[in-house]
Design goal:
By secondary structure, this protein is of the alpha+beta class. The chain has 6 helices and 14 strands. It folds into 3 domains: 63 residues, RNA polymerase II/Efflux pump adaptor protein, barrel-sandwich hybrid domain (OB fold (Dihydrolipoamide Acetyltransferase, E2P)), CATH 2.40.50; 136 residues, Helix Hairpins (Orthogonal Bundle); 95 residues, Elongation Factor Tu (Ef-tu), domain 3 (Beta Barrel). The protein is 42% helix and 20% strand. A 6-stranded antiparallel β-barrel has the order 1-10-13-12-11-14. β11 and β12 form a beta hairpin. It is elongated, with a radius of gyration of 47 Å.
Length: 408
């Protein structure tokens, strides 16, 4: 028997008006979405430039010795927080102590030699006075001897004076003349010695005499070398990248560790070159860190734009004038200053990823800075005290060897 056949059911009838209404609905939704997107782009997005190619940057301060030596102590390690002036590494100071003692001895000797120069001025002046008195005495003797000779010469003719007595008077006159010449030569020599000695002391104070200053400079050098055996932290910060080891012989300038002040951070946001046309210095920036997510927003401002692209400053810059060439969109770093209070509340680390959104609606700023910085961005006073201590040590040595001589 043949199986019964079934005729497929016809599709439901859809009126033409309903189909058109459904198509119009889809079109309307698409138009509304397009309008919303266009409105967002026009009113919001066109006033913003965004990049996720942004990273936290900071000052990585290398700790390097100013003198060579053997490491005898390491007083801070990775992740430690240190205060400015706190010792980090200690070098063996034995050689520097010997050099300081020798320099202080040389300074003391120089001070005493200069004391002798100043004292000689008085003695040479007195010697000139004495020689001038000898001249006056010799002149008196010449006058007396001349009178005696003249009287005897007038009596020679009548035999009242013997020839021997006359010769004796002539000898006395000659001796008096020789004494005058000797006294005059002595005055000339004494004045020359005084002039020579005054050339070593005239126009200068005792403590600023060249001999004293040269020896004092050696004391300062030795004093600084001794106290530079202890390496202080120049700023407050955290220790990172410690490479120095106990007993290691290090040379001047060798990197031992780094200090990172996490209170002085900024963000380098690398924008595409097509995004830079509206970015200006001073524009507000909203930033988020991958570390905290969207729950923490940092407020910053554009501090400046880089003077070149990242590729221009790369270790191996691109050689676009050779071989095949493919255009690559370049990026320029834009420096963004952070709010220090926000950084203190939500600490960041150097190298963390950030997202930066710049509000470019205000175009009143400049694209490039046109004036030098008014003050130093970072500085330290840790080493200034050491200079003052070296000066105090020099004054102590000078005072100890100056005696009764005044330093002026």
């Amino acid at each position: 028997m043949n199986a019964p056949t079934h005729t497929p059911a016809a599709p439901p009838f859809v009126p033409a008006n309903a189909a058109r209404r459904k198509a119009l609905t889809f079109v309307s939704i698409a138009v509304l979405i397009g309008l919303a997107w266009g409105g967002y782009e026009w009113f919001v997005n066109r006033n913003e430039e965004t990049t996720d190619n942004a990273y936290v940057q900071g000052n990585v301060i290398q700790i390097t010795p100013q003198i060579g030596g053997t490491v005898t102590a390491i007083l801070a390690d990775d992740t430690d927080f240190v205060k400015a002036g706190q010792p980090l590494v200690q070098l063996d100071p034995a050689d520097a102590k010997v050099a300081l003692e020798q320099a202080e001895a040389n300074l003391g000797q120089a001070v005493r030699q200069v004391r002798t120069l100043y004292a000689n001025n008085g003695s040479l002046t007195a010697q000139i006075t004495l020689r001038e008195a000898d001249i006056a005495k010799a002149q008196t003797e010449i006058a007396r001897a001349s009178d005696d000779l003249n009287r005897r010469q007038s009596l020679v003719g009548n035999g009242a004076v013997s020839k021997e007595e006359l010769n004796h008077a002539q000898t006395q006159l000659a001796n008096a003349q020789n004494a005058l010449a000797s006294a005059q030569a002595g005055v000339t020599a004494a004045r020359a010695q005084l002039t020579s000695n005054q050339a070593m002391t005239e126009g200068t104070r005792f403590d600023s005499h060249p001999s004293v200053m040269a020896a004092a400079a050696k004391v300062r050098e030795a004093y600084l070398a001794l106290h530079r055996a202890a390496l202080p932290a120049p700023v407050d910060g955290y220790v990172a990248k410690r490479t120095v080891q106990l007993g290691q012989r290090v040379g001047a300038g060798a990197p031992l560790m780094s200090i990172i002040p996490l209170s002085q951070l900024w963000v380098d946001a690398n924008f595409k070159e097509v995004q830079l046309r509206n970015i200006r210095i001073g524009q507000p920036v909203t930033l988020t860190a991958d570390l905290y997510g969207r729950k923490v927003e940092y407020k910053g401002k554009v501090a400046g734009l880089g003077a070149g692209t990242g590729a221009a400053f790369a270790l191996l810059p691109a050689q676009n004038a050779t071989g095949n060439w493919i255009k690559v969109v370049q990026r320029v770093p834009v420096r963004v200053d952070l709010d220090p209070q926000q950084v203190a509340q939500n600490p960041l680390r150097v190298g963390l990823s950030m997202e930066a959104q710049v509000d470019v609606s205000d175009q009143g700023g400049k694209a490039l800075a046109d004036a030098p910085r008014a003050a130093s961005s970072v500085q330290t006073q840790v080493f200034a005290a050491l200079d003052d201590q070296a000066d105090a040590e020099v004054r102590r040595v000078i005072t100890a060897n100056a005696g009764a001589v005044q330093a002026h």
